[in-house]
Amino acid sequence: MTTTVDRDTGVCRRESVAAATDGRKIACDARCPSVRSGPVTEEWLDVNRANWDDRARVHAVSEFYDLAGFRAGSSSLRPFEVAEVGDVTGRTLLHLQCHMGDDTLSWARRGARVTGLDFSPTAVETARELAADTGLADRARFVVSDVYSAREALSGERFDVVYTGIGALVWLPDLTRWARVVADLLVDGGFLYLAEFHPLAELLGEDGRTLRHDYFHTDAQTWDEPHTYTDGPQLTSTRSVQWQHPLGEVVTALAAAGLHLDFLREHEHTLFRRYPVLESTGTGEYRFPPGHPRLPQMYSLRATKPGGPG
Ligand SMILES: C[S@@+](CC[C@H](N)C(=O)[O-])C[C@H]1O[C@@H](n2cnc3c(N)ncnc32)[C@H](O)[C@@H]1O
User: Fold this and answer.
1) In angstroms, rounded to a whole number, what is the distance separating the alpha carbons of residues 242 and 168?
2) In a domain, 309, yes or no
3) Do 124 and 143 meet the contact criterion of CB atoms below 8 Å apart?
4) Cβ–Cβ under 8 Å, residues 119 and 147
5) Ligand 1 in contact with 166 (CB < 6 A)?
6) Ligand 1 atom closest to residue 164's alpha carbon, by position in its atom list
7) Residue whose C-alpha is closest to residue 1's, from 19, 23, 17, 12
8) Is residue 251 part of a domain?
9) Which of ligand 1's atoms lies nearest the C-alpha of 100?
10) Does residue 310 form part of some domain?
11) Of the candidates 246, 274, 281, 291, which lies 20 to 30 Å from 153 by C-alpha distance?
12) Does the residue 65 lie in any domain?
């Protein structure tokens, strides 16, 4: 993967696809050392929606997302998520930024009554088709909405579990506002489960050893990428706006929204070859080789809304 930065505009461009080699789902993007930064502009939502509509068209027929495999019965959830969320039988689960709904519907296959929400009409259309094709439509629905408008889009409904992550938070400019939305969407005693790529894993250069990027760089970053992260043709809406969020910002936003942190786990594996040095375990995980200094590459947390029975 080659990354170049336009010196005049500061816009980042990547020249090749950074897809996983084993067919497992990966992150949205690796970081660029010097993308254009600045204050959040009002156009970011439209820019990102156009970019995601375009990506969703490509993703729906990609080998990478393998929706045929999902239709045939596979689960797209990662084993650590299933273990950490626990039994969802009979519970209501809201998936924020659900993309094409395969993760959402995997929770339905485990017994939850699910709602997926995403701002891309194209992604939601695919999710609805997937629900119908897999016979899960009676316990799954999909809603088109920006995350920040989710309360209104769901008419004040509340859920036992709010699930999100795997490349979700980089698309949101304001986590304090996001956490308030999440808290409002939970029943008393309900919990948020978030599994994300660790912000520390974005800091190294391509050698996987040298510190190259700034952990505290939280300004908007404008990207211009011809490809999405899967196999498939070039995009036409290539620009996007993204934000990096330090771990302390995530946890502090949840605390400010009144949620109680049950656990925060840092994982040494990631889901794609983020650095050439990473080795595949053959089970969809990538780790630093023995003897190589390790960084956390993912994290997961559960945060509960106080109250509820008991
Ligand atoms: C990488 S996907 C993450 C979803 C899921 N983890 C996956 O891997 O399929 C990011 C999703 O966030 C959605 N998204 C980005 N910004 C959003 C926003 N402001 N409101 C709602 N959805 C948004 C995109 O449409 C996309 O489907």
Assistant:
1) 10
2) no
3) yes
4) yes
5) yes
6) 6
7) 17
8) yes
9) 9
10) no
11) 246
12) yes
Cβ pair 93, 113 in contact under 8 A:
yes
Q: Which two tokens stand for residue 38?
A: 């600045």
Is 168's C-beta closer than 6 angstroms to any atom of ligand 1? yes
Residue span of the structural domain in which 260 resides: 3-304
pLDDT at residue number 16: 33
Nearest CA to 20 out of 301, 300, 281, 294 is that of: 281
Mutate to test the pocket of ligand 1, among 44, 52, 77, 225 (most ligand atoms within 8 A of CB): 52
- Tell me what the pLDDT averaged over the chain comes to: 89
Q: How many domains does the chain have?
A: 1
- Is the minimum distance from the CB of 197 to ligand 1 under 6 angstroms? no
Confidence of residue 248 (pLDDT cuts 50, 70, 90): very high
Supply the CATH number for residue 90's domain: 3.40.50.150
What are the pLDDT digits (tens) for 26-61?
A: 333 333 433 455 555 568 999 999 999 999 999 999
Helices (H), the chain: 44-60, 67-71, 79-85, 102-109, 121-133, 150-153, 175-185, 247-256
Contacts 24+ apart (CB under 8 A), 208-212: 208/275, 208/276, 208/277, 208/278, 208/288, 208/292, 209/277, 209/292, 209/293, 212/33
Please give the distance, rounded to the nearest whole angstrom, from the Cα atom of residue 99 to the centre of ligand 1. Answer: 5
CA 291–ligand 1 middle distance (angstroms): 36
Q: For residue 125, is pLDDT > 60?
A: yes
197: β partners: 298
Tell me the two tokens of residue 282.
Answer: 């053959």
pLDDT in tens, 172-195: 999 999 999 999 999 999 999 999
Question: The whole model's pTM is what?
Answer: 0.90
What's the residue count for the chain? 310
CA neighbor of 195 nearest in space, from 69, 48, 65, 97:
97
Q: How many CB atoms lie within 10 A of CB 261?
A: 13
